[in-house]
Design goal:
The chain is α/β, with parallel strands linked by helices and about 425 residues long. It is built from 12 helices and 11 strands. The model has no long low-confidence stretch (mean pLDDT about 90).
C-alpha cells in the first residue's frame, strides 16, 4: 500500500471527446478509497502544478460531473509543457507543491508527451525518496500510444470523422456536377484516425482513396489514382492525413513554404488538403473542395462512442486502484480479449516503454498500393464505435437544456490558498 495522502489529477495535451469522463471516473474511484484523503486537480496540467494552482475536485458541484460525458475540451485546463531530462528548478517546484499538499498519488491524463512527464516525475520522486505513486491515464485521438490496443478518445473521433464524411458526401451527391472532396484528418505521424474514415463506407458514402503517413506520399501516384477514378465515377472522396510526407522527408504541408513547431519540437500540422486540392484543380481542371475537420474531430461530444466513454471512465478508475495499491511508473493500457462479443481488460504497462514511443498503423493493414486500408483494420476498428448494451450513464447523444442546446459541465476551480 502507498502512504495515505491526497490525490492529484491533471490533464495535458490535446483534448478528446471523452477526456472529461476520465476525470469523473478518477474522482468517484478516489472517493471510495480509504487511503485517499482529498482529491485535487491541477489547473492546466503540469504548468498548474508549477504555479501551485490546485483546486479541490470534491468541493465542486457534484451535479456538474454527471455532465462530463457531454462536455468537450479539458475541464481542468490542459497544457503543452516539456520537463527537461536533467534536474532543474521545475522538479524542485513540483516536489515542494506535492509536499505542501501531501500529494501521494498523481494521475496524469494525456498522450505520448504526457507519459514522458509522468515517467520523469516517477523517477525523480524515487531519487528524492518521496513516496508518490505516479500513473498515466491514456488519451489521444491519434491512437499512437504503444502497449495498448487503443487509446480513449480515438473511437469517438473515428465515429465523428466517418459520420461527417458520409454526411458531406451525401450532400455533394445531390448534384450532377463532377467534383472531388478532399478531407484532411488529424494524426501527428500515425494514420489511425485517417484510416478510421474507412468506416464511413458502411453507410455507403465513404472514401474512395485513403492516404496515410505510414506510406511515402507521391504527388504523381496521387494524381494517377484520382485520374483513374474519374473514368469510373463523377464524385470522388479522398481522405488524407495532415502529416503525409514526401520522399525527401518533408511534410506535404511544407510545400507552402511555411514551417512551425510546438514546445515539444513537433512540427505544427494542417494545410495539406488545401495544397493537394489546388494541385488536383490545376492538373485535372475539375471542381475540388478541401475540407479540414480541424478541432471538430476531437470536440464533437454528440458523436462520442459509448464504448469510448465507458473505457475513458474505467481507465481512470483503474489508475486510482493501481496508485492506492502502491504501483508507480505505469500507464493503464487496454487489452482486447475478444471482438465477438467485444471485451477488454485493463492492465499496467511500464512508462519507460511508453514515454515518447509512437505506434504506427501496421503495414499489414494498408493495401499494396498504399492508398487504402484492409478489411482487417475495419474489423479492428468497428467494435470501438458500436453501442454497449450496458451503456447506462455513457449514453449519447448530448443531454440538452430547456433551450435545446447542450448543457456542459462547469467547474468553479476555486484555487487552494
Amino acid at each position: 500500500m502507498a502512504t495515505k495522502g491526497n490525490l492529484l489529477y491533471a490533464q495535458s495535451g490535446g483534448p478528446t471527446a471523452v477526456i472529461n469522463t476520465s476525470v469523473w471516473g478518477a474522482l468517484q474511484a478516489a472517493q471510495a478509497c480509504a487511503q485517499v484523503g482529498e482529491v485535487y486537480a491541477a489547473y492546466h496540467g503540469i504548468q498548474g502544478v508549477l504555479a501551485g494552482e490546485l483546486f479541490d475536485l470534491a468541493a465542486e458541484d457534484q451535479v456538474q460531473f454527471t455532465k462530463m460525458p457531454y462536455t468537450p475540451g479539458a475541464v481542468l485546463g490542459s497544457c503543452r509543457y516539456r520537463l527537461k531530462q536533467e534536474a532543474t528548478e521545475d522538479y524542485q517546484k513540483i516536489l515542494d507543491v506535492f509536499r505542501r499538499y501531501n500529494i501521494r498519488y498523481f494521475l496524469y491524463n494525456g498522450g505520448n508527451d504526457s507519459m514522458d512527464t509522468c515517467n520523469k516525475l516517477h523517477h525523480f520522486f524515487q531519487e528524492q525518496n518521496y513516496e508518490c505513486a505516479v500513473i498515466g491515464v491514456p488519451k489521444t485521438i491519434d491512437n499512437d500510444l504503444v502497449l495498448t490496443d487503443h487509446s480513449p478518445g480515438f473511437a469517438s473521433s473515428v465515429r465523428c470523422v466517418s459520420t461527417l464524411m458520409a454526411e458531406v458526401t451525401v450532400d455533394a451527391c445531390s448534384y450532377t456536377t463532377p467534383q472531388i472532396l478532399l478531407f484532411e484528418i488529424m494524426g501527428r505521424n500515425a494514420g489511425w484516425l485517417t484510416a478510421g474514415s474507412a468506416l464511413a463506407r458502411l453507410s455507403g458514402f465513404g472514401p474512395d482513396l485513403i492516404y496515410l503517413p505510414e506510406r511515402t506520399f507521391s504527388l504523381e501516384n496521387f494524381l494517377q489514382d484520382v485520374t483513374n477514378l474519374q473514368a469510373q465515377k463523377p464524385h470522388i472522396v479522398i481522405a488524407v492525413s495532415e502529416s503525409l510526407r514526401l520522399a525527401d522527408g518533408r511534410y506535404v504541408k511544407e510545400l507552402s513554404g511555411t514551417k512551425e513547431h510546438d514546445v515539444f519540437g513537433h512540427e505544427q500540422m494542417g494545410g495539406a488538403a488545401q495544397l493537394l486540392a489546388a494541385y488536383l484543380k490545376k492538373n485535372l481542371h475539375t471542381k475540388v473542395r478541401a475540407i479540414e475537420f480541424s478541432l471538430v474531430q476531437r470536440a464533437a461530444c454528440h458523436l462520442a462512442s459509448q464504448v469510448d466513454l465507458y473505457e475513458a471512465y474505467h481507465v481512470a478508475e483503474h489508475a486510482v486502484k493501481l496508485a492506492v495499491d502502491g504501483v508507480s511508473g505505469k500507464m493503464v493500457a487496454l487489452q482486447r480479449e475478444s471482438d465477438q462479443p467485444y471485451q477488454v481488460s485493463y492492465k499496467a504497462v511500464d512508462l519507460d516503454a511508453v514515454a515518447n514511443a509512437e505506434k504506427k498503423l501496421p503495414s499489414s493493414w494498408i493495401n499494396a498500393a498504399g492508398n487504402d486500408v484492409t478489411d482487417e483494420f475495419v474489423r479492428y476498428c468497428l467494435p470501438l464505435i458500436s453501442n454497449r448494451k450496458d451503456a447506462g450513464r455513457y449514453d449519447v447523444p448530448l443531454e440538452l437544456t430547456d433551450n435545446g442546446l447542450p448543457g456542459f459541465a462547469y467547474l468553479k476551480k476555486q484555487l487552494l490558498l
